[in-house]
Sequence to fold (394 residues):
Amino acid sequence: MTYNFDEPAQRRGTDCFKYDAMRMARGRDDLIPLWIADMDFKLPASILDPLHDMVDRAAFGYTFPSDRYFAAVQGWFANRFSWETKKRWIVRTPGVVFAVALALQTYTRPGDAVLIQQPVYYPFAKLIARNGRALVNNELVYEHGSYRIDFADFERQIVEHDVKLFILCSPHNPVGRVWTEGELARMGEICRAHDVLVVADEIHADFVYSGHTHRVFASVDEDFARHCLVCTAPSKTFNLAGLQGSNIFIPDPDLRKAYVDALGRLGDLSVNMMAMAATTAAYETGGPWVDELVNYLAGNVDAVRAGLARVPGVDLVEPEGTYLMWLDCTGLAERLGDTPLDTFMVNDARLWMNAGTKFGGARGGNFERMNIATQRDTVEKALGQLATAVARGA
Fold:
């Protein structure tokens, strides 16, 4: 292995949410934080050196994205996902959540129905509510330890509620599905038949495990590309969320003009020069680092699987992608009785994960989301603490 993923980045004392918000959010500072979706790994020098160069120049004035920047972004998606794009398709925004919110404001009106697939990334529901749109849920079906789409319900919800926009999470956070081309095609065909715009959040596309392949939604069918936005960012892949940069692909010129006009009404958003430099370097040089990172994360998945073998009542929903593990704690929750699952995780296991209830769905109270993008010894320690807590009192 070329890169040392066992060496942690210094995160405590840097005002990072993951560690430094612990006392504020949980009232204590002795928890292992496995919640917010960022990583504890150091970036390689090939990405850091251009940032050091910018600091050394001691000037941070207005800047613009170069042709090299666009070429790096396009090259990443061509090389990693066999998706050929056009420079003019790319609209830069401060982040994917921002981009989804702007899509809601651009393409729907207050009261319009917006479809999501819970349990799903919880900001989607918040954005729908805060923008006065109506949430419609095509709940994923959980059976035999995995999730699938109820396509009959998918279409029924669209027709009954006159859905205008569908937010697709691909790969899916938190259940870890990497949708097959057939599944994407079926969703796309239904949306096309009922004139539903697809906003595809593909921010976790680079985290896919052996035996699975991520397919960009817009690449499945040329007609799909004309009726969708593909939301991407290097923030998850390279832990660059704090630099606030994302790339939204909008192939259709009319959709793109409406979006750019809406962006302009918010003011002239300057491009973060550090984000551009990091993105360019990451997409030009970061492929080998990502390949090794995914292999390391696969080892962390193995560690979770082995650790849970000693924890009765908690099962791993086998991940196909992402570094976010979805833990089925149904058996444990039943033994806890009136004690909320998340309370047990904090007070007894001393783990800070995301409560499943945040992601919606009928069974959310029986699940926890665990971020494994950290050192393996931390993952193993966390599973040990959980095993001990369960053996002691649950």
In short: The longest strand covers residues 163-169.
